[in-house]
Design goal:
Number of helices: 12
Shape: elongated
Strand order of the largest sheet: 8-7-6-9-10-11-12
Structural class: alpha/beta
Largest sheet: 7 strands, parallel
Strand content: 5-15%
Helix content: 25-40%
Radius of gyration: 22 Å
Amino acid sequence: MKSTLSLILVALTLFGFAGAWSQDAPGTLDGSVVAMDTDGGTVPLVYLTRPMDEDELARLVDLAPNVGFVFAENGEEALAHAGRIHGADAHLLTGEDLAAAPNLCWVQSWSAGVTRYLEDIDGLRESDRIVMTNMKGVHGPAIAEHVFAMLLSMTRDLDAYRAAQEKAEWDRDAGSGMTAVAGRTMLVVGMGGIGSEIARRAKGFDMEVLATVRTARPAPDYCDELGTAEDLDRFLSRADVVAVALPLTAETENLFDAAKFALMKEGAYFLNVGRGKIVVTDDLLAALDSGHLAGAGLDVTDPEPLPADHPLWKSDRVIITPHVSSRSELTMERRREVFVENIRRFGAGEPLLNVVDKQLGY
């Protein structure tokens, strides 16, 4: 049976994706740059990646015939190829690889977040010759669904009714109360690729949608009011639900502290699918324990992984999932689409999708 990637590549070829990237496809050309001039696709290149089957490899070679592939399971195997690679999967690299790879000009992260690579791979952030790309915009649909799964589980008190079901009890009063989200206000903090998908779904639930972005721009039709970081405090006091989809940067670390939680409405819900360190965990617990916040849905925590004895586990106002909100077949397909298109662009010497500003960290 053909692999998922092979099926995607066939579809992309049939519908013209491989030669003309569509704005509707995952990934963005914002800030896009060329990693290396390949003289119209004639310069031989080598890309380091994880092992793949013959069908996957054949399709990639069809799209980028000047790109050869070498494979590694881990960093130790990757180092053996460092001297001849021009591009690589980020998770296979270390600072040692960078020092031994004079021709390396492109690093592809298979995640949207790249902080760990910029911090752990010595020289990557500072390098002017290495373009880094990520999977921005790929995970949004699945993560947005996860956000609403957590929110609706809390507002409809599903845990209580699940517990009654397990005891085979037809108990209509098992839940402590139910809340409708229609007519409520959601604040999306960080309306990038993931935040935009959250905002779209909030509007579909007939919610008023507020959102913040780093740089001011007009609000899309699924957002009632779009502001910047300067508007965050004002928006927090209006929101019934706050969904955080920010990257972790020096500016966002510990952003949500006791002061921010105090600004939120009494009885509001807090959801975090960004990074755990954006939140001061003790302050979140205090806001939950006091009853100021009705509940929290966390796919990321600080610390992470969360220790077994951490008080977050014991809070009956918290839903915790272990950083899995992006998992779905759809996410894997969208990742493959970005990777395949970037391999084609790399070979052709065209601007890459999802270029990371390494100084900003996203």
